[in-house]
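Quick look at the format.
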Amino acid sequence: MGSESDECSTAVILGVDGGTTSTICVCLPLLPFCEQHQLPDPLPVLGRAAAGCSNHNSVGENAARETLEQVINEALSRAGKNRSAVLAICLGVSGVNHPSDQERILNWMRNMFPGNVKIYVQNDAVAALASGTMGKPHGCVLIAGTGCIAYGFTEDGREARAAGAGPVLGDWGSGYGIASRALTAVVKAHDGRGPETMLTDCFLKSLGLASPDEIIGWTYADSSWARIAALVPLVVSCAEVGDQVADEILKNAVQELALSVKAVVQRLYLAGEDGSDSFPVVMVGGVLENNKGWDIGKEVIDSILKAYPGACTIRPKVEPAIGAALFAWNMMKEKEANGQSR
């Protein structure tokens, strides 16, 4: 029988970031739980694998399960490990919005990992939060990419979310929301319902269209939300050179994104009773990345800090899949500290 030190030297933890576009799995070695031990920088990733969508709402249960199994098996294979080496796994998967969603994925994973493997299933926003807090489930994360969501955790385990309901239900601060409003503005300017805008010529040139009338056909030719969201840089560029319509669209997006964070902070009392307590706000997603002139992320941060001066904004140094693995590691570390068996 191997010693505990032998187990620790071979054991691994898995982290999965399952999105609507792609699914990533990373394999990390079991890191020491000692409080004095600093996490290595960079973290030692033993194996990494990528596949397509694992959101069961988008591709169905069978395809989602197959994708998760694929990335897990590939990451383990590239790490030179097998399933028996896994001590814990955290899956942050988009579409996990209800306990029934969690239970479904838990059942899939129990079939893959029978025995004492610790399995944690969360929304993919939790993986993004953990990527900024190095696995600690505390604070708020704002994701603004194709879609958007704000998600928060308290140190005693309470959680809350705002937005994240998709474009039909109004994720207006998202890339899709920004670009769809810009496309609408072009159509309204063309038919006389709205002011003229530089967005018209900018979109026509970029999309290779001859007339604003063709924007309607282009928009409905492909239902991909990411295809629409990819137009955000054009909206930013028009706002940067002074287009009032584009500027107003971005200001509205900033308000929506900041409002989502504020809603989570208020529901969880992350800033304390007087709003001055310190808490992390993790900023993730292409919409929040730095722009030279019109910086959406900076404007959102300024709005958050105006309401909550103690907020500590963080742009993650590691990817969400690593955040998910560190989430599992932190949960194991807490149980160890409380005298519970791994």
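Next, a different chain entirely:
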Amino acid sequence: MVQLQNQFLQNSPSAGDGTMVADELLEPDVQIITSGGRIIPAHSRILASASPVVERLITSPQKRRSSDRKIHILGVPYDAVSAFVQFLYSSKCDEEHMEKYGIHLLALSHVYFVPQLKQNCTRGLAERLTIENVVDILQLARLCDAPDLYVKCLKLLSNNFNTVEETEGWKFLQNHDPWLELEILRFMDEAESRKKRTRRHREEQSLYLQLSEAMDCLEHICTEGCTSVGPYDMDPSKNKGPCSKFLTCHGLQLSIKHFVTCKRRVNGGCLRCKRMWQLFRLHSSICDQTDECRVPLCRQFKLKVEEDRIQDDATWRLLVRKVVSAKAVCSLSLAKRKREDEPRVAMNYY
């Protein structure tokens, strides 16, 4: 501590008359009383410059009447207070002190308003979270207004709740802080709801991407032809090889063949034909080249929608927007991937 005080004094700025401010601070003028009655001598100007709370304690009227100024920091181990004062002098905190007294330093930094130390303690404690100490650090983070550390504790506790539930910290929490227990359980419920919503959203996006890919394959089959199915004016002797989306394209070709030859399609009794019918309708809702489009029933569906707007309900319009959006996102991601691959190809070439 003496070495830190001397280092700070040597780096102190000069006063207006050319003398060093350090000359006025050679002797400690404040005593910090810790638990057990141990005393840490310090300099009031250094402490006041580092902590506005300590500054108010030093300059309070009650202390001004007394010849000896004392600051009581009780309820914390002496070594933790010593590490706290060391930070006020040097703005540095050793890893060893953070390992041993991180919880105490966080409380002191919050009480005496030392933001830099509080940030260091929040980051250090977050790196040292374990199943055994997560409940204690969670309670401290809430009391010391450390939201980042609080959220990290909640996430760790939520992901390992079955193990944390067996610790002494959780049992103490249940008996003495039911409101915090309720808040933790609410966070876990909301986290599970978020996971379900995310999972459902991914499944929906996957379905929209599959429909978008089916639309591309339908246009490809009806315009260029693929393997065994193609437009009516295509030369059957020219067999098309499998395309890049052959899995989807092959299944769609089988559905088209079934749709053409199915006898139950007229009465609406075939589920497979109904799905094919919906694909034709979905293509018609997306297609913007009606006059040149070669997909069957495209123009007929558009005319039907113009004649009867009721059939084009809100649910169907929402499906069309989702498929169009998924198609746009897919095309953008492919373009981005292509731009990223071009420099690699050029680099390999050279």
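Residues 87 and 343 are 50 Å apart (CA to CA).

See the schema section for token definitions.
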